[in-house]
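Protein Record: Sequence and Backbone Structure Tokens
======================================================

Structure line: whole-number tokens from a learned vocabulary of local backbone shapes, matched to residues.

Purpose: to set a sequence beside its fold so the mapping can be learned.

___
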Amino acid sequence: MSNPRIGFVSLGCPKALVDSERIISRLRAEGYDIAQSYAGADAVVVNTCGFLDSARDESLDAIGEAITENGKVIVTGCLGVDEGVIREAHPKVLAVTGPGRFEEVMTAVHAAVPPAPDPFVDLIPPQGIKLTPRHYAYLKISEGCNHRCSFCIIPRLRGNLVSRPAGEVLREAEQLVAAGVKELLVISQDTSAYGVDLRYASSQWRGAEVPARMTELCQALTSLGVWVRLHYVYPYPHVAELIPLMAEGRLLPYMDIPFQHAAPRILKAMKRPAREAETLQQIAAWRSVVPELTLRSTFIVGFPGETEAEFQQLLDWLDEAQLDRVGCFRYEAVTTAAANELPDAVPEAVKDERWHRLMAHQQAISSKRMATRIGSTQPVIIDTVDANGAVGRSRGDAPEIDGQVLFAERGTLSPGDIVTARVLAADEYDLHAEVVT
């Protein structure tokens, strides 16, 4: 008798990907196989995104495709909080659950496709099933967010900040490293706020008490001997405590900080901290200690009321900040977001023009910063190897969102190897290198 098979569609951000991994781990633990096609599945789980209206549309399209191709569909994820929207568009879905509702997903799967218990297949590796390559993994340290940014509905979708105890996070990290993970990517909605809801309460790990606080958590993670990369770091003052860890080579000299804008009035309308000058001082102080620090950020252009002068202020701020990696979004109204009520909407054509102008402006900055790496030697983690060579990432490159290090020769390289490479050339985003050792 063959095992029941579940198809899986995972949409959205890395935090949603971690949710998908947990659900798939539970499915495999109960003897379900994961189908690679709709036709081969007894039912399909669709993990949705609901952050932007365009993401909601993509999720609804994915649900519709799964219903057409398979017929038995269970919906979970951020869009699941709007069950009425899903059922209005697709009344044939079997069940709808919100983000992080793993038990409800499993209950719906059991109802649609009963498990076939078998002690020989009800076993999974201790680190669970991962959707990333074997050598890196996302480590989610909290759910939800306490901020109330006017353009964002994450708190409505995922609730207020709920941090995991430090001991629990560290035990998961240990399991991942034992399974061969070489790089841990720490994620949450607000990594800097980790532990606030727990009042930084300590928990046991390796016979010691570890507070649920970002600094102590990072110190413990760096003892595992793998790359540790931080995402979604708000520039609170205590972030400076991490800089010595980076200077010592224990923590990757990389931070992903969502600045969003630089004009004080726009930041205020976004309900973001309007401390653009202070932030520039922080960046300068960090780089004075860690010159190789890579800073990545995202920005929104065309926010309601944004004037040409305020957009130019953002460009000028980028000239001062000299960020290494920048992503940019055209402002998009999100259903139920407070920003929808703001006056003076920016025309779509203006948003598009400003997006192109910002990306070209930042490309020039990135090109100059990348050129400074030519001739240097630096560690590189290898992601893929084929007949044409190998592709890796430097310490300043996160997977899928940043640049790559390209090798013309594959040699004896394998995915997950960490090598020392000499940079031969650079373009706007990528480096070309050769292996030294």
Notes: The chain has four domains: 5-112, 132-256, 289-372, 377-435. The chain has a mean pLDDT of 92. Residues 132-256 form a domain with the Transcription Regulator spoIIAA fold (CATH 3.30.750.210). The first helix runs from residue 14 to 29.
